[in-house]
Amino acid sequence: MKAVDRLVKEMGGKPYKLITLVCYSDVIHGSSLDELNIKKLKDKLRKQLERSDVYLPLIGTFEVDYHSHIDSWVPHFHLLMPACEKTEGAIRSSFRKSHDIKMWKGRIARPVYLKSVIAGEEVAAVSYVLKVVWATCVDYWCERREKLVTKKMRGKPTHVAESLLFLDSITSDQVVFEYRVKGTKSSWRSLSAPNR
Questions:
Q1: What is the residue-wise DSSP string for 108-120?
Q2: CA-based angle 154:45:40, to the nearest 5?
Q3: Which of 5, 7, 24, 56 lies at a C-alpha separation of 20 to 30 Å from 16?
Q4: Is the distance from CB of 20 to CB of 112 less than 8 angstroms?
Q5: For 76-125, how does the pLDDT look when each residue is reduced to its tens digit (9 = 90+)?
Q6: How far is Cα 99 from Cα 36, in angstroms, rounded to an integer?
Q7: Beta-carbon neighbour count of residue 130 at 10 Å?
């Protein structure tokens, strides 16, 4: 709870964005997480942000959801960053170019999803990016909306067990992602933009 309080205080009513970055090119096929290398994915994201000239700080966590329609685990990051149209555009452009989404077979793949943090909802936003809940995504046809919809839910016991065993084998610091955040790695201290 201290980390949540600290981040909410740092936000101080300034405009922020929730950003989800989906790593389609790093999907793990099958039900096993043996090939998952979080450090490699975090390093890859950090380099991609640097190449895209992203100078604003981002903070959040790494997650993996099992997608039943492709029998694969899909890695992604839930992050919080100060609102900035230029930075948001650079991230969108970079992720659309670098992530193979052909496997999504007729679905709309969104490698980047952005949502504004509404004033008064800072605690919910920070809690969302700090949660570590790996779920199963299931597709179903929605008659009312007349389209295929994906719903997150608790998965089959085998997938739940696989994710819990993997999470138990790592530390909480390993799922945390920080980029250009001031202070020590565990402090979660400052999300203000650095001087350039």
A1: ---SEEEEEPPTT
A2: 75
A3: 24
A4: yes
A5: 999 998 888 998 999 988 887 766 666 666 666 778 889 998 878 888 88
A6: 17
A7: 20
